[in-house]
Amino acid sequence: MSRHRRQRLAALAGAFLIAVSTAGTAVAAAQTRTIGLAYAGDAAPAYAFDVKGYCDACIPDAFQVILGRGSWAYGATTTATVDDIHWAAGTSTALLYDDALLRQGQTLGLSDVLTTTGGTIVAHGTLKGAAGLINDPTGGSNFGPSGTSQNIDRTATWTITGCAMPLPGESPRTCVSNTQDMELASRAIASNLVATLKAVLSVQLRLEIQVSSDGIIVARSLTVVGDSGSQDRTMTFVGSSPSTLADPIALSCTQPSGSDVAYALTAQSYAPVTEIAGRGTLHAEAVLVPLLIGPDIPVFGDDITSIVAPSSAFGITLDGNGGAATLGVLAKNNIPPVADSGGGGGHAYIGDQGTPITFNSASTSVCGPPSIRWDFSDGGVAFGDHPQHTFQGSGVYSGLMTATDITGLTATQAFSIGVANLAPVVDAGQDTSAAWGRPVAFNGQAVDPGKDDQSTLTYVWRFGDGTPSATSGPSVIHAYATPATYHAMFTACDRNGLCESDTRDVVVRARDISVGNLGDTAATYDTGAHLQASLVDEFGQIVNGRTVTFTVDGNAAGSAVTNSSGLGSTAWTPAIAAGLYATSATFAGDTLYTSTTGSGSVSIARKATTTTYTGTLTGGANKTITLSAVLVDATGTPLGGRTIAFKLGAQTTTAITGPSGVASIQLKLAQKNGTYPLAATWTPVGADAVRYLGSAASASFKLQAK
User: Cα–Cα distance between 152 and 129 in angstroms, integer?
Assistant: First the structure.
């Protein structure tokens, strides 16, 4: 192990010991903070209900003599309205937590306990209508208006105390106001010298407000001073007051330690389902009011109407303020990561040389996934949870994985890697072909999966023809002596003795050959000539000892064996008519050379002849003479059986040549004395016309008397 690596391992071990020694157990300390929120809202319910009734007993029938016939009563008809409502209420939220968990990387298990506090509802309204005497002339109770009426216009204020905002478990909650007791109207009925009879109407009214809700909603935020943001959550308190909600808060290691942790609540609108109803009684009494000093004397008094007005829904929304509390100071993380380099219980990996091996960290940290560094004993370094690393040599390697959280705390875990040796990957190359005796290039390739073994590879070529193997390297030259298909094998071995082979086929073929016609291209009928050809292979090398056969005009004309110069020659005497004829020279081929044919032409000329006159040259008139001539060809060969035409002056005759080429005939002279031209002519006819040239002999003949 290098000194640098030993120093790094020592530093990592020291950091681990320091982290362990300073990671003491925090002392739990229960803490409570309280945040109060105030809510308020207004509504205009426009709620109205009737308050009416009459008092028959308030006016005795004896007063008919004063008021008129029939029965009399005193009554009122009014309408009560609730014009506006104001509701103020509050909550108190206790924050319960353990400040030992007020630390980076921890979850603060905070509980929020919300308690609704007393609330007050104040409602304002009016009672408006009229009051007066009513009469039934028949003496019954079917009263109708009679005389003048008195207008009624009263204001009222109702107060409900202790009306806290209900939670779902407390809904519906009915809040009842104080009773508003007020005189509506009064009237003097009759008077004498002693007292006045007075009828009085009064009302006792209260409001009942029923409230139901789905819960109280607040928006929570937690802010570490100096951090760039806050953690927000919306919470809904349900059940009954006090209502408890668990509010676990993960304290990130990125939040600055040493800073205050502020917890804030912001009230959301509280919009319960509400109904209002009017309740109470209408009271009537008759009293005697002394004209002089003295108390009123009750004559009659009773509740004449019970008021149970129908309820009516109305909407009201309470808006709240916000509040905050400081939970304490955020402490620095003191829990190092848990290092796990993977590889099973023994932290051991296996793989092949030259092949990427994947490593899998299972390290954890309270601060979230730690950053991972992998140091390998071959000097390699990798980063991340699942890196890959390739070992170029085989064997057992070691490594050290280091996990570092974002607060700088580290932990390490050693691991091992078993790397298996692999044989080289061998390629003998593509199959090829070549002519025998020609050099063939063998360019093998071998790549070891591990780069460390590449320079140590050894190579062997076996050519498949029984010749010695080549061990000089992956690229060699070899020539095959005879045509055939050979299986060449290329083998490469690494330094550990692991080998791999590959083959290629080499098809060795016969050489192509060309024929050159070099013989006579012009000849004469029945005159000796030569047919000649040369054999040269495709690489320009002379081919000797091979038989070449000749044809002229498609007919066999002989054969010859090529000499050391590659030439084959044979004598040939044309026996065909004059003309231009195709010639060929053919080599039939053998194991080393392919068959081939060369072509040419030869021009055959007619053979020359000579006619020689051998007869007499003088004679007398009417005398018989002998005319004779000899016909031979250009080689002096007599031509028998040919017709010689003789002409002497005006006389002509013919004679046939014999085997010796001599033609002879008797002629009787029938001309006057004189000198006459004499000619002996052979003109070829028939087959001779295309074989021979004609010939003639001339002389002077003297015809004279003795």
Answer: 5
